């Protein structure tokens, strides 16, 4: 991939520039790319409504255990971040990230969506980035609109990764989409025959070549010498893989994203599901929490040196009720939480205004009170990462948003 | 350039089958379409109301669960019953997907199947709640399929007043700002009001088209006229006068309703007028031409279809006949890309997948070999991405991801579909007739085994297009 991009960029830049720079061992392929700077942004949509109060537990509040009798487990010292807050036990792998100042939380934030608490509407509004209560009118996502204002962005800058379209990435700006769950498994000869056949159809030929390249860059072999048993096995496994190995899909996605962003790409988005914990939350939250931890550690490992200039921003459509319900779970709420990770983050901090869990301080005496617009934090992350104009962010990316003062979440 | 059976099957069906005869003329295709629905007889999908017992059970369990949780009581038993119901309906949903593919495989009336897909796309709706999410296929079966060869206005009324659409586009929560109910609620301090979602999409997507001669004022007035129209999976479509905005509404200069409102009839009157509008004729004509012939149809083709509609008072079968008798329909260069459901359907048909084994596939097989691969190809079928349906543009589908997913499926799925893979050269002859290019023939002949040979046929540029 890297070699390929160097060659393409070399040709694109013209021989004069190419000759002098290409000879220099200091020039990496990324230096050639049109990509806007070194900063990287990964947006993860946590679908289903993440319970921020269980991910980042406010043990300091006397109300926590009374509101949630069946969710309480003794606050373990190892998971405490400070005297007030402790992490969910399945996020143990993130503790070192916190300690090294690369993990932060933004408490009590939400989209402007209120009261109906539907996943469908809530996610649409989060991804459309609009302030209105009806997202139906907005058919593109804020990440796409942001890209359209990013100087130097091209078709290799941004990726939407994983199964299914993300509204977040939809719109006129070109964002590549790829799901590492797709695996091309082809014999060398089969590939050659397809290329032969596709000389009739350049568009198909181009897509096939890119597909083989992308499939080869996500950890599995794409091309086999011959149609051997190994290839047959790989293929049959993969038919089932897309579904059966769903448990590991997030790691493949994180690996793929890290690979692309360590190279030419600068922006990626994908989703993690499973946060809708209406029942037996004590067990139900383990899986998504573990997946989130795996995802972030995989990104960190895969990005290598590029982790230093990376911000991972995790957002959810809404939080959950402050009190547990009759099935030992929590229902759809309002105030939620944003999670920030990466070397570019001013971490080891809990941002945002937390009004506490006293019934009178809750939204509608029920949900965590949202005290700020989550889009404002996203906008400042974007502004700090890519230097976009405030007016562009307030008018185009998040129409109607007031950016307010810089919360200073990035270094 | 005139009627050609292979082209007819390719453009207007799922391609040729080794066992099912192709049509003999354009007239025969229309006559078959207007005849009995043999596909529905052979491979039944129950109508919406035939699932009433399950829908009622869902409503009942939801209510129970809410009440128990409100009182802080255990919901274990209700949860268990809900899981059983969910499993039952998930299995049915997958069975219906298999029936749709069997119709594509075995129908002598493939045009009807393609039109079913086309009009489901035009009236795209998806469930936002679990009970609706189960019901995509019955929605098509009940609200769309019986109306695809009659008057467009009947199809329009049927689709947009169906509970699925009223749910999807939020009509069921819309409330006239001056309705009785709104006034009562204001007294109680609640603020709810008009929802323009359905009205806007009727004008923009279903009838006049985005460039049609309507304004925001027309959207608003239509939304007000639609108040009172609500749908429910158990009670069906209803008109609740208490939700309706009082007074007359003017849409494109015509006044509906008035002091004595006859709810549904006023709404139907407005929908019929919108269906008969010349802009609707133009919008539908271009959409049909784009879908069945080319992303860039000739003006002449569009005009012919448009006039067939206008002269017949909106008879859809007259539009289809106009396409089938136009020279553009018989051009030999086939350029539109098959969507995933059409690609999979065409492969099923070319392979003549036998119903005996396929019908009884498990939910897991269906998910692994049909549903997930189609999502990877970009079409989570029965779950359209929005009210505008899936994009028509060819390049939307043939992205690296889309091509990779098709290739993966073409290599791995066929051996699960038929007992013995066919000789790739025979399959090529069946599926493409004389349409295979020289390079395709060379590649298929050079394949090192049946599996790759079959995949090459299915991935041939000529197979990817219709």
UniProtKB/TrEMBL annotation, chain A:
Protein name: Secreted protein
Organism: Shimia abyssi
Automatic annotation (TrEMBL), chain B:
Taxonomy, superkingdom: Bacteria
InterPro entries membership: DUF1800
UniProt name for this protein: Uncharacterized protein (DUF1800 family)
């Amino acid at each position: 991939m890297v070699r390929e991009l160097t060659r393409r960029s070399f040709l694109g830049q013209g021989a004069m520039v190419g000759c002098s720079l290409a000879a220099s061992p200091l020039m990496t392929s990324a230096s050639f790319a049109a990509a806007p700077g070194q900063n990287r942004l990964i947006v993860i949509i946590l679908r289903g409504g993440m319970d921020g109060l269980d991910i980042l537990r406010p043990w300091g509040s006397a109300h926590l255990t009374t509101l949630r009798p069946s969710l309480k487990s003794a606050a373990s010292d190892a998971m405490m971040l400070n005297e007030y807050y402790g992490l969910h036990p399945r996020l143990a792998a993130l503790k070192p990230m916190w300690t090294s100042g690369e993990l932060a939380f933004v408490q009590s934030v939400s989209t402007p969506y209120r009261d109906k608490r539907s996943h469908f509407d809530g996610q649409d509004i989060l991804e459309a980035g609009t302030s209105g209560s009806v997202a139906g009118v907005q058919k593109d996502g804020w990440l796409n609109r942001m890209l359209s204002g990013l100087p130097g962005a091209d078709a290799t800058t941004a990726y939407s990764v994983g199964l299914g379209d993300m509204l977040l990435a939809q719109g006129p700006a070109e964002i590549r989409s790829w799901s590492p769950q797709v695996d091309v498994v082809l014999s060398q000869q089969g590939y050659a025959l397809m290329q032969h056949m596709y000389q009739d159809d350049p568009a198909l030929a181009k897509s096939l070549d890119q597909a083989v390249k992308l499939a080869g860059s996500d950890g599995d072999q794409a091309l086999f010498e011959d149609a051997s048993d190994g290839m047959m096995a790989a293929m049959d496994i993969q038919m089932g893989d897309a579904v059966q190995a769903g448990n590991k899909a997030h790691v493949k996605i994180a690996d793929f994203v890290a690979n692309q962003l360590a190279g030419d790409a600068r922006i990626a988005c994908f989703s993690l599901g499973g946060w809708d914990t209406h029942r037996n939350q004590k067990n139900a939250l383990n899986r998504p929490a573990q997946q989130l931890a795996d995802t972030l550690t995989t990104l960190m490992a895969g990005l290598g040196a590029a982790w230093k200039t990376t911000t991972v921003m995790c957002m959810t459509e809404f939080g959950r009720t402050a009190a547990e319900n009759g099935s030992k779970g929590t229902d759809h709420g309002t105030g939620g939480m944003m999670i920030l990770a990466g070397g570019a983050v001013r971490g080891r901090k809990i941002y945002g205004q937390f009004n506490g869990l006293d019934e009178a301080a809750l939204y509608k005496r029920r949900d965590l009170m949202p005290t700020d617009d989550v889009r404002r934090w996203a906008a400042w992350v974007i502004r700090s990462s890519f230097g976009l104009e405030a007016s562009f962010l307030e008018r185009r990316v998040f129409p109607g948003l007031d950016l307010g003062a810089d919360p200073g979440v990035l270094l | 350039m005139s009627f050609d059976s292979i082209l007819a099957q390719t453009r207007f069906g799922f391609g040729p089958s080794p066992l099912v005869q192709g049509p003999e003329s354009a007239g025969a295709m229309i006559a078959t379409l207007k005849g009995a629905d043999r596909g529905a007889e052979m491979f039944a999908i129950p109508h919406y109301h035939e699932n009433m017992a399950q829908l009622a059970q869902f409503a009942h369990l939801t209510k129970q669960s809410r009440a128990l949780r409100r009182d802080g009581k255990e919901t274990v038993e209700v949860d268990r019953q809900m899981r059983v119901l969910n499993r039952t309906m998930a299995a049915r949903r997958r069975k219906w997907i298999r029936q749709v593919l069997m119709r594509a495989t075995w129908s002598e009336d493939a045009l009807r199947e393609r039109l079913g897909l086309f009009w489901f796309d035009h009236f795209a709706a998806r469930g936002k709640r679990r009970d609706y999410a189960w019901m995509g296929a019955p929605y098509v079966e009940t609200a769309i399929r019986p109306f695809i060869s009659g008057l467009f206005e009947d199809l329009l009324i049927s689709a947009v007043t169906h509970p699925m659409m009223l749910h999807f586009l939020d009509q069921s929560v819309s409330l006239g700002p001056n309705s009785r109910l709104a006034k009562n609620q204001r007294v109680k301090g609640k603020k709810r009001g008009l929802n323009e979602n359905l009205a806007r999409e009727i004008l923009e997507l279903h009838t006049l088209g985005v460039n049609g001669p309507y304004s925001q004022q027309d959207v608003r007035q239509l939304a007000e006229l639609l108040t009172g129209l609500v749908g429910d999976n158990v009670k069906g479509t209803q008109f609740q006068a208490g939700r309706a905005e009082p007074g007359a509404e003017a849409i494109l200069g015509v006044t509906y309703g008035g002091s004595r409102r006859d709810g549904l009839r006023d709404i139907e009157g407005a929908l019929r007028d919108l269906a008969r509008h010349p802009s609707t004729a133009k919008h539908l004509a271009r959409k049909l031409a784009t879908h069945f012939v080319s992303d860039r149809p000739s003006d002449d083709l569009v005009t012919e279809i448009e006039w067939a509609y206008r002269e017949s008072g909106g008879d859809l079968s007259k539009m289809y006949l106009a396409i089938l008798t136009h020279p553009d329909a018989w051009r030999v260069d086939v350029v539109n890309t098959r969507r995933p459901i059409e690609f999979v359907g065409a492969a099923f048909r070319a392979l003549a997948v036998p119903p005996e084994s396929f019908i009884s596939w498990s939910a897991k097989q269906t998910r692994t070999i049909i549903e997930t691969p189609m999502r990877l190809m970009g079409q989570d079928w029965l779950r359209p991405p929005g009210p505008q349906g899936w994009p028509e543009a060819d390049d939307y589908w043939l992205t690296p991801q889309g091509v990779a997913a098709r290739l993966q499926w073409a290599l791995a799925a066929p051996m699960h579909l038929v007992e013995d893979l066919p000789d790739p050269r025979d399959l090529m002859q069946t599926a493409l007739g004389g349409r295979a290019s020289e390079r395709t023939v060379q590649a298929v002949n050079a394949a090192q085994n049946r599996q790759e040979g079959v995949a090459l046929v299915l991935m041939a540029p000529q197979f990817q297009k219709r």
